[in-house]
């Protein structure tokens, strides 16, 4: 089924000029970038976005990191986009990520792991709405 998922190219990747390399992996996996914007995430946006992790020990560090440099927020569209993007990203911890995945190729650590992707279709809708209006998305 054609789906949309939400993606963030994180500060560790934008700092190293990896936006294009990551987009090539996304497109190579058959996903279309139907919306994309480079932003500096505000503290409030990062706190809201990661609200489910508020009680985790790494929450403060995560918010600091996500606001430390620009990020690229994206909407990706394609067949089974949620699962397909998770497969292309690889495991959260790059040490466990499969060969050829974005995180195996580019991530620095479990925190500085280059990309975020929605974990379900339901969360994809919520996350997309946090950063994009329907008019911004051109499928
Ligand atoms: P993401 O998919 O953006 O969703 C939650 C993020 O928390 C995750 O990617 C990691 O970057 C981060 N994270 C998970 N575990 C840790 C950890 N142990 N230390 C620091 N950051 C973490």
Kindly list the characteristics that best describe this protein.
139 residues, alpha+beta, four-stranded antiparallel sheet, 7 helices, 4 strands, 40% helix, binds adenosine-3',5'-cyclic-monophosphate
Structural summary, described in words:
The protein has 139 residues and is of the alpha+beta class. The protein is built from seven helices and four strands. Strands 2-3-1-4 form a four-stranded antiparallel sheet. 34% of the residues are buried. The chain binds adenosine-3',5'-cyclic-monophosphate. Adenosine-3',5'-cyclic-monophosphate is lined by residues 53, 58, 61-62, 92, 110-111, 113, 116.
Tally of DSSP helical segments: 7
Strand order of the largest sheet: 2-3-1-4
Helix content estimate:
25-40%
**What is the residue-mean pLDDT, rounded to a whole number?**
98
Instruction: Please tell me what the overall shape is.
Output: globular
Condensed summary:
The chain has helices spanning 11-15, 19-28, 43-49, 59-66, 81-89, 102-106, 121-131, and strands at 2-9, 32-39, 71-79, 115-117. With 139 residues, the chain is α+β, with helices and mostly antiparallel strands.
């Amino acid at each position: 089924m054609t789906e949309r998922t939400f993606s963030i190219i994180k500060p560790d990747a934008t700092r190293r000029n990896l936006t294009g390399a990551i987009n090539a992996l996304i497109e190579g996996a058959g996903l279309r970038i139907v919306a994309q914007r480079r932003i500096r995430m505000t503290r409030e946006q990062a706190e809201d976005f990661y609200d489910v992790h508020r009680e985790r020990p790494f929450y403060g560090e995560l918010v600091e990191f996500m606001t430390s440099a620009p990020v690229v927020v994206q909407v990706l569209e394609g067949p089974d986009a949620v699962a397909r993007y998770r497969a292309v990203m690889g495991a959260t911890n790059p040490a466990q990520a499969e060969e050829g995945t974005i995180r195996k190729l580019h991530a620095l650590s479990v925190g500085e792991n280059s990309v975020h992707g929605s974990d379900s279709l339901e969360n994809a809708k919520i996350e997309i709405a946090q950063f994009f209006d329907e008019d911004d998305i051109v499928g």
